Each structure stands twice: as structure tokens, then as C-alpha cells.
Amino acid sequence: MNIKILGTGCKKCQELEKNTRMAVEELQLDAQVEKVEDIREIMKYKVMSTPALVVDEKVVSTGKLLTVNELKSALA
Amino acid sequence: MFNELANWLVVDVMNMELSSRLGGALHFFIYDTTKILFLLAVMIFAISFIRSFFPPEKVKEWLEGRRKGAASVMAAFLGVLSPFCSCSTVPLFIGFVEAGIPLGITFTFLISSPIVNEISLVMLFSIFGWKVALIYVLAGMTLAIVAGSIIGRLKMEKHVESYVYEIAAGQERTQMPSGDSKTFAEKFKALFTREELKERTTFAARNVVETVQKIWLYLLIGIGIGAFIHGYAPQDLLVKYAGEDNFFAVPIATILGVPLYSNAVGSLPIVEALLNKGVGAGTALAFMMAITALSLPEMILLRKVIKPKLIAVFVGVVATGIILIGYGFNAIL
Fold first, then answer.
1. Which of B104, B240, B317, B321 could form a disulfide with B148 if both were Cys (CB 3.0 to 4.6 A apart)?
2. Could you give the CA distance from residue B4 to residue B35 in angstroms, rounded to a whole number?
3. Catalytic residue list contains A8
4. Which residues in chain B are contacts of A7 at CB distance < 8 A?
């Protein structure tokens, strides 16, 4: 599983990354979590509000800081 | 209700006269804190709920390929309904360019969105009442439309960083799946299923918590300073320097607003206290608009997509508009 957090470095983006890592750990998933900060890369996903969550190249959520629990149900 | 609570606490519980300096200041502090926090919670919930129906991706879709006049008014209106976090400024801007939305329309949206937000609305409503809050919304939208059209007229497209166009050109244009056979009524109904509503309510509730967490300290500091001014500041001095008769009050208020970004909550109680001391209402509104529309962090973000000259034009046009609005309100309110 490949998880990407899209965000240009704002506070919400950092928190989403932290929550995602926690969710992955709690679920004991075999997943790579990657932070994408380059705007060209971000725009490839046609995302207009950050932070966005991309799982296996599919945009799962945009403009939202998901909680660990929400992330767990989205990733499980 | 809040007035009675503050009266009761100050007069009955703390045994103070409302006409005394400390009593007056304390009353101001308790009254403002309870009233503003309550209104903020209610309004942020309501506005976040409405907002969940207007994500920026939708806004882009609605604005695409529309005629300039209609798109301009719509962009200002959607800016009110669809505030975005300033950290999304860059992807939003590129997304709009990519969709072929004219520069002027993009700026209309970028100006209108921060000016009319739930926090400034609550503050204006609780301090000046709904009429001034409504006038503020209309003035903000007008400013966004006019400033956007001017920027559009000036043909500043070459002052957008070239990589923005490269990204836009590199995107294969996505066709929205228009082939779905759902009628409008069906789509509309799908927005209000139980799960959808639950998600929107959670979103709204969380926004209340996040916002209050973010602003409560500024709010208390601002109300504290306001309470101090209310109880102790000399009236004649303030009227002399910031009263309606002072020609420079509005431009100075506008300039002071720029570095106070995101502190609308902290600044407005101060303005409220100043107003009671005779500072013009237009001056206060100009101050509020400058705080929200001309923010330093947003300019730094915009610099990533547009060149300094266009930023200067943006700031110049918006600041001029705000100052004119300030003078206008001072004259009529």
C-alpha cells in the first residue's frame, strides 16, 4: 500500500501526516507513507484544497484534517 | 441575556458599581467574552455546514466557461460560501488557471473569500448588529468584483509565474463524467442522505472546536485590551486622532490591518471599545477588511504563483478600495 499526503507545508498537512503514520502503525499495515510538497506533483492529482490524502494513487480526501480513527476506517 | 449575566456577576457577585472604572471594564470583558464565544460557536457550526456543500473543486467547475459578467458575480458570491484555508491558495490558483478561468475572476474569488468569513461576520454582528454585518458582506463582494475586473482589464497574465502555465498545459483536461443519468432532483437528494448529513455535521462541529482552539487566546487578549480602553482610555485624545473628522484615520487603520492577519478576533473588541469612544464606523470596517483581505502570509503564498508587479497591483487596488469604503461608511453611518 502506498499512501501520500499532499500539502505545501501548512500545519494541517503536518498533522495529517502524523495522524496517518499513527493509523498505519495501529493497524499494522504494510504501507509507505510519503509527504508530497512539490506543487507540480500535487497538481497532478487535480487537488485544489490541501491537505489531501492519496491511497494507491487515488485521492481519498481533500481539504480535511482526518482524525486517526477516520484514517483507520479509510485505510483498513 | 449576556448583559444580565455580566451585570449579575459584576454587581451582585463581585459587589462593584457599573459606573466605576474597574466595574465598567470587567462588565465589558465578561459581556463580550460570553456573547462572542456563544455566537462564534453557533455561527461557525452553521457556516461550516453550508460550506461543506461548496468545495473549491465544485466552484471551479461552476465557473468554467461562464461569461465574464456572470462569472464575476458568481465568483464573489461563491467566495463568500466557500472560504479556503490560506495554505490552499497556490493549488487553488493553479487549478483556476488550468480550468481557463480568467485572471480577473480568479482574483475576485481570492479577494471575496477571506473578507467574508465566519469570524469577521460574528464579530461585526455582535458588535454592530446585523445591518452593518450585511453592509460589510455586500461591500466586500463589491470590492472583490470591482478589484477583480480592474486586474482583469490590466492584462496582467504575463505576470503569472510561467511554471503555472506549464503545469496547466501539462494537465490533460479532465472531462467531468457528464454521462451519468441522474436527474438534478436525485443528485440533490443524495446530498441529504443520513450518512451525508452525519458527515457534514461532524465536519461542522469539528470546525467549531478547531477554530475556538485557535482563536480563544487572541480573543481574550483583545477583549482585555478593549476592556482597558473602555474603562481607562481618555476619550478626547482618541477622537482627536481616530475620530471621523481626522482625514487620515481610514488610511492608517487600513495599513495597521495588514500585519494583524488572522487576529480579527483579537482586534475587533479593541475596535468596539474605540468606537464607543467616538472612532468612526467606516474606519472600523476598513480596519476589519484590511485585516482579512490584505494579509502578509497570503501575499507570501501568492508570490509563489505571481510576480511582484502583480502582487503590487493586487495590494494597491484592494487597499484603495478598502480606503474608499471606509470613507463612504464614515460619511453615511
1. B104
2. 11
3. no
4. 87
State the Cα–Cα distance between residues B60 and B58, nearest whole angstrom: 5
- A52-55 β-sheet, strand order: A32-36, A2-6, A52-55, A58-62
- Examine the residue annotation and report whether A6 is marked as an active-site residue of this protein: no
A71, three cell numbers: 484514517
**Would you call B56 and A63 a contact, using CB atoms and an 8 Å cutoff?**
yes
B43-75 residue pLDDT tens: 888 888 887 888 777 888 888 878 888 899 989
Express each pLDDT in B12-38 by its tens digit. 777 777 777 788 888 888 888 888 888
Strand A52-55 relative to strand A2-6: parallel, antiparallel, unpaired? antiparallel
Reported in sequence order, the residue ranges of chain B that DSSP labels E, i.e. its strands, are none
Residue B7 placed within a domain? no
For domain A2-75, say whether CATH 3.40.30.10 is its number.
yes
Pairing of strands A52-55, A32-36: unpaired
Chain A residues close to B94, C-beta within 8 Å:
39, 43
In a domain, B30, yes or no: yes
